[in-house]
Design goal:
With about 500 residues, the protein is α+β, with helices and mostly antiparallel strands. The chain has 13 helices and 18 strands. Strands 6, 7, 8, 9, 10 and 11 form a six-stranded antiparallel sheet that branches. Strands 2-1-5-4-3 form a five-stranded antiparallel sheet, with helices on both faces. Strands 13-15-16-18-17 form a five-stranded mixed sheet. A hairpin with a 5-residue loop joins strand 17 and strand 18. The N terminus is likely disordered.
């Protein structure tokens, strides 16, 4: 039979080894940053380490032999009794979060681990406590919460199974759910059904390749509110690891509605700019060709052209040049208006006198035309920019002359309606179809009248009038029907 011998490791440790082990354990306890205490069965403190003195603020003499209740906050006394009951039953308490009190009366949060202590015969003689001051951790958590709650974007934190674990106030505001309606729910709750499969696949891929990335910038991505409404979003994903090594995904969700609207607006503006350039080029080209053509006629055939023809050609050149000058002035005025560079000198003035002067000037330039003016003798002053109102009025009078036959009069009337003065300019000309009325006051808005010779114009005059009137607190509109003439009306606030 083979002899069995005990290896050195099977031999019980001698007194020297026990002493070394005890010394090592004592060194570990004494150098720990956590408070370590032991208590007897009556709850009196029987040992402590330097960290306990530092954390609680009590000296060794003030702790040893004293009840541990001096370290327990009054609000946690019931919990302490429950813990002692568990220890007496031989149970261990792990990572219990509670509050403790310092010598100066201040309180602080701790995580507490307690275990029963037994003597060599197995009889319970007390308990050992490891107390970790988590003030810094709680402060960091509180700062994190403040940052998350005050963020302008929705923040949703999701665990590895795709379940929502944290949301902020902005998430509630944007999605319309209460916080308790989102926590513990799958993140697909916030995603339209048609995107859920793609989103789930994307999240799985993200967990497999944890890097910061963006969703929704290059593709249309939508989120869903509680009421079913959908809106475009951009999502930034990043990962964090918890103390227990769990992996979480932080989704910062930005409502991209305004951004998408701006992009669409910029695209529309770019289209308008292209249209503007095309229209300007077209309207400049026609008179320039005419000027160039008649100028070459005069240069090439000066001697062979009689004086009457020369005068006719020069008059055509002059008219087209005037048209170009007026068009360029209107374009520059529109540019100044839209750049916000237009200023107004608002003051009270006599609108009756202004209308009379405008009629006199238009009549002197329109030989053979009839003008009628009706207004009460006593008329209140209005509040506005007199020069800008002059521009509006003379533009409307010029259009009335242009688009109505000579025998018919052009009528201007003034009346008071509520807190404004209404200025009406009526002609009995070709009129405007109802469907064309909305085009009148837009840039390059022109209407077509079949069978009627097109009058000169650039489609900017009424747009400028509308801008000038509305910028001074008034309104402008037109009432018309084909063959029966038109009435243009604008208002000016009464000066109080």
């Amino acid at each position: 039979m083979k002899e069995v011998t005990n290896s050195p490791t099977d031999e019980p440790p001698d007194d020297r080894e026990i002493a070394e082990q005890n010394a090592l354990l004592a060194a570990i306890v004494m150098s720990s940053d956590d408070a370590i205490l032991s208590e007897d069965l009556y709850g009196n403190i029987s040992s402590r380490n330097p960290a306990a003195e530092r954390i609680y603020g009590h000296s060794a003499e003030e702790m040893l032999g004293h009840p541990s209740s001096i370290l327990i906050h009054s609000g946690s006394a019931d919990h302490a009794t429950d813990i002692l009951g568990k220890l007496k039953n031989g149970q261990r308490v792990k990572q219990y979060e509670t509050t403790r009190v310092r010598k100066d009366g201040s309180t602080f949060p701790v995580t507490l681990t307690m275990s029963p202590i037994y003597d060599p015969t197995g009889i319970q003689i007390g308990s050992a406590s490891n107390i970790c001051d988590v003030t810094e951790r709680d402060e960091a958590v509180q700062k994190f919460r403040v940052i998350v709650e005050s963020a302008p974007d929705a923040i949703v934190i999701v665990n590895e199974t795709g379940v929502i674990t944290v949301v902020n106030f902005q998430t509630e505001k944007i999605f319309g759910y209460r916080r308790d309606e989102m926590l513990g729910q799958p993140v697909e709750l916030l995603v339209p059904s048609r995107f859920q499969a793609v989103f789930s696949s994307y999240m799985n891929h993200f967990f497999a390749n944890l890097t910061v990335r963006q969703m929704g910038a290059e593709r249309e991505l939508y989120a869903r509110c509680k009421d079913g409404r959908e809106f475009p979003v951009e999502i930034n994903l990043s990962s964090i690891k918890t103390a227990d090594t769990r992996q979480l995904v932080v989704a910062v969700i930005r409502d991209a509605t305004v951004q998408k609207q701006i992009v669409r607006r910029l695209l529309d503006l770019n289209e308008l700019r292209n249209e503007f350039v095309f229209t300007v080029a077209h309207d400049l080209r026609s008179p320039m060709i005419s000027i160039c053509g008649f100028a070459h006629e005069l240069i090439n055939d000066w001697d062979a052209t009689d004086d009457a023809k020369k005068i006719e050609y020069l008059q055509i050149i002059a008219r087209n040049t005037e048209h170009l000058v007026g068009f360029v002035e209107d374009v520059l005025q529109v540019a100044r208006i839209e750049a916000g560079e237009y200023t107004y000198d608002i003051h009270p003035f006599d609108i009756r006198s202004l209308v009379q002067r405008a009629l006199d000037e238009t009549a002197s330039a329109s030989v053979g035309r009839q003008f009628e003016f009706s207004a009460p003798r006593d008329f209140p002053a209005v509040l506005g920019d007199e020069d800008r109102q002059w521009q509006v009025l003379t533009n409307l009078l010029s259009n009335a002359v242009k688009y109505s036959p000579a025998p018919e009069p052009i009528v201007v009337g003034l009346s008071c309606i509520d807190d404004s003065v209404q200025v009406k300019v009526t002609d009995y000309g070709i009129g405007i179809a109802t469907e064309d009325l909305p085009k009148l006051f837009i840039k390059f808005g022109r209407v077509s009248n079949p069978g009627v010779l097109k009058a000169p114009g650039n489609g900017l005059g009424l747009y400028i009038c509308k801008t000038l009137v509305e910028s001074q607190g008034g309104r402008i509109w037109c009432e018309s029907s084909p063959g029966r003439g038109s009435t243009f009306t604008f208002t000016i606030p009464i000066a109080r």
